[in-house]
């Protein structure tokens, strides 16, 4: 039925279109901070009544950013200039920005805000100016989404302390896994020229509560530690500072050798320690509020402390010591795995890190990817969460769509983020969700972190795919408050970014909410994964040659004449033993393991009857075909909102959906034809055997990889 519902929608929508004059000329640059004139006149008048002036008591740069933003926003939304004044004394009907140490009492943390009606004014208060800035954006959001503001009483605090974007940007302007043009950072112009985009980038981030950003790729160049680059990074930091955003740098572990001319980068060597101490001092001299260092070490060929027989903790603690005099942190990534023909990459991070629990300096946060493998379309949560009670673990999500169709597939990621955050680790009994591990409530972590690998680049609309802006937005909103639902966030974003027409907004929100499952269906259903090839886009399930076994496709899916999937139970790699018994119990029995995770944990026979009532082969085909067909449903849903969204954005998304449709069929055909060579069964009705052969698909993939 599912595969035909787009047809039904088409019939419905041909007789129905939205009555609204389409706005024009939107290039997407303004993201969700659009501030177009509110066309609902009574609503606009009500807002105007309550926002006649902006009183800024105090004048820090961050407070000024808050006042500037309110002025910009209100001018656009209300169609008139709202003055900024220095005092609200004797006045009513305005917005008052106030920093006070006691604001919100103990119910609010340092970055929280309160919006309340006070003496006839809307008072935005915070313990710090950053809190007020977040409150100003929250008030604007209230108006952008059409909510009343005359009886406001809102208190909100971020649940996570370090809310960061990680840019994987290189010195030459390229972006690792970036699909939206080149790097935002114009290193060749810096430090002299500050591109105006940096400020707009900072505004967008502050609007969703992001307060930190690493400028460069985790596969780092030592150049970022050079005096020349420290000045450039300092210039970027100066553009972001008025928005409460601190800058971090990814370090190349072997920099003491390559840059410092030392003979070693051994973390226990006194000269190496002295080198880092001096380097960190230099960083803080240039950037007094420098956030800290992000480290990828002994991972995928990057150097690290293990090159000298030392542990991750030895390495991290050495940097933490250099950082001691300053208010910065060391963020050490747990993304590690070795080339082991008999091993299971799934288990690697847990095996390396859990023995180190309790040995890290208190300035260290260990940053863990959401899943045990690598940003797959659907992964179980990493077993590290809940298993390192004495080490603050931070979350690393990937916003850029490395495995989610780059910039041509529409995949709204909030459901993926939420699936992981809401998963129960049972670390401290029922309800010990990953989110509660991350926000410190399960283990009482002193520092809490959520990082997202950024998807913003030099593309005029920042993210390439216009809908990918929603993933940046959703990441920030969830880092602030992981209890928000995917739907609430999508609905906010759609209203702020695409349309206020309620039916159209509802339709787009629904489309977004379904998009990730549709992608999983045609890409990696029932727990398949695909971290192979350097490109991470083309389907290549047959790929079986590489310098490392874990860099082939066959390593992950284990298709053979008997069946498909990775046995991670006791009779296999036993990765399941890394989870609590309650979690294990959900997944270890192939009869009851939920289908979305089945092939993650079990090697299942082709003719095995699944809980859906279909055999594995029939279920796979059903997913691949309905997934690919559902992209046509997506196209039709999008078609139905044409009159309610900007024509430029409409056309852009429509074209990308057409590409997505073609590519979804490519994925479907590649998997179905390849797996059929093992399952040796026809494609079940009502689905039709692909028109091309396996060789045809292989050829098209080879051509793709030639590019
Ligand atoms: C993988 C990416 C690779 C990154 C690596 C990492 O393919 O480009 O360097 O993760 O996170 O997903 O370090």
UniProtKB/TrEMBL annotation:
Catalytic reaction equation(s): Hydrolysis of (1->2)-alpha-D-(4-O-methyl)glucuronosyl links in the main chain of hardwood xylans
Q: How does it assemble?
A: Homodimer.
| Organism (species) | Fibrella forsythiae
Which domain of life does the UniProt lineage start with?
Bacteria
Q: Where is the Alpha glucuronidase N-terminal domain?
A: 31-139
Keywords annotated in UniProt: Carbohydrate metabolism, Glycosidase, Hydrolase, Polysaccharide degradation, Signal, Xylan degradation
The Glycosyl hydrolase family 67 C-terminal domain extends over 463-685
Q: Reply yes or no: does the keyword Chaperone apply.
A: no
The similarity comment for this entry is: Belongs to the glycosyl hydrolase 67 family.
Task: Tell me what this protein is called.
Answer: Xylan alpha-1,2-glucuronidase
For this UniProt entry, which residues form the secretion signal? 1-19
- Sorted alphabetically, which Pfam families does this protein's record hold? Glyco_hydro_67C (PF07477), Glyco_hydro_67M (PF07488), Glyco_hydro_67N (PF03648)
